[in-house]
Amino acid sequence: MMINHPHQFSQNDFPPLALALGFFDGVHKGHQKVISTAQHIADENEVKSAVMTFDPHPSVVLGKKRKTVQYITPLEDKIDLISSLGIDFLFVVRFTSAFSSLEPEAFVKEYLINLNVKHVVAGFDYTYGKFGKGTMETLSQHGKGNFDVTTVAKLEEDNEKVSSTKIRELIHAGEMIQAKDLLGRFFVTKGTVVHGEKRGRELGFPTANIQLENDYLIPKIGIYAVRFHVAGRWYNGVCSVGYNPTFKAPGETMLSIEVHILDFDETIYGEEVQVEWHIYLRNEKKFNGIEELILQISKDVQTTIEYFDGLDK
Prior knowledge:
There is one protein chain. It is elongated and about 70 Å long. The strands form 4 sheets. The chain has a 6-stranded parallel beta sheet. 30% of the residues lie in helices and 28% in strands. By secondary structure, it is α/β, with parallel strands linked by helices. Helix 7 (164-172) packs antiparallel against helix 8 (176-183).
């Protein structure tokens, strides 16, 4: 349910709720812990479970410069992932200048008490209200006895806090396995197959050129072993993220995402597809000629086959 500020809801519009509160970009293991805690409390108290998240990212509204944020899970993906966890109610609050100006106490009254929230669950570092002045320490005080509060401690993997910031760093560095360990699943981007320059076909390695559907975080430039989903099936593939320096003139800066799908020979323009990012194989480089490039792509294909063969054992 999308909520625009100011909303007109009252307590009578909803059953009693146990609510997980957060931005939840990535819906990673730490977020899952917050949400599952709210579900457990809902079950124990025989109330409905709920999640409240926000869109767009606060930095889009609060930043002084025009800003485009790249997300681990753009809103559509975030909704799908949270919904798959079995939540009864999902509130997506539109984050605007007016909403961000709410004093912490006003946020609690309008967005918790007035939505019939009886128990609030959030991470230890959650803040709310104007300038983020509201914290988990002030939440009970602002609630005035209308709801209970549970603070979820930080989740760590190998002494590293599980956070969206850390996962972003890993994806930017091409550390896809480490990102998967914190997310609880491989990083996935969705898009549409569009016409490219058809150069891969000429080289004997046809590629699907992907136009991303949303503002996804894009992994480090280079070559990856990936899985590729199209028309209801998953395939293995080799993905190139970069600028095709062997063919581009200096200064050309059109980033492309292209996937050579293994054991696949179909025309799929216009299809909605998913790329599941597995391992970084190598950096993008400029080759001295076509033969050198073809040889390297053949090696990339072989490495990818061996990687997925290893997963299947």
